[in-house]
Amino acid sequence: MKKLLFGLLATVMFVCSGNAQTKLSTAKKAAIDAQMITLVHLTAQTTYKSGMSQADFIKQTGPVNPTKEETVLLQKLYKYASAGTSDCEIMKGDNSILVTVAQLGTVSESTPNSKFPWAAVLQGLIEVIKIIIELIP
Questions:
Q1: Residues 52-90 pLDDT 10s
Q2: Could you tell me which of 3, 65, 79 has the C-alpha nearest to residue 36?
Q3: Count H helices, E strands: the chain?
Q4: Disulfide check for 91: which of 4, 33, 102, 103 has CB 3.0–4.6 Å away?
Q5: Which of 122, 121, 14 minimizes the C-alpha distance to 67?
């Protein structure tokens, strides 16, 4: 009985500790995907160079001390930019990390020698995403 109780407790703890993806309606997903495409085009045109490593991309593009969510967003941007992902493929992907970053509202300062104005662009996208979340059913 004791093992059963501990097994049940461990199962409940394991299930509750998982991170769920943000579920979006079809209209919200389309709007968020459009914002991701905008961000990919901005980063690809200003920062990414062919053959650039992910660490170099994050260092040149991102904030000085990125949060966990910002790091995930930067990794996704690098993946899209380095693979030359088409807009259609970006729209098929899970871009809910933008919603997570917008809801947390954490925008860090850009690195001093960054070619990409991380804080300004992300703050603008966060405002657009907040409006999308409020207005689209």
A1: 898 888 888 777 777 888 889 889 989 998 888 899 999
A2: 79
A3: 7, 0
A4: 33
A5: 122
Q: Output the DSSP codes for 43-60.
A: HHHHT--TT--HHHHHHH
Q: pLDDT by residue (tens digit) across 86-125?
A: 999 998 988 888 888 877 765 555 555 555 666 677 777 7
Q: Kindly state the tokens that stand for 3.
A: 């093992």
∠ CA 101-106-111, nearest 5°, is: 105
d(CA 75, CA 42): 15
pTM for this prediction: 0.68
Beta bridge partners, 110, equal 63
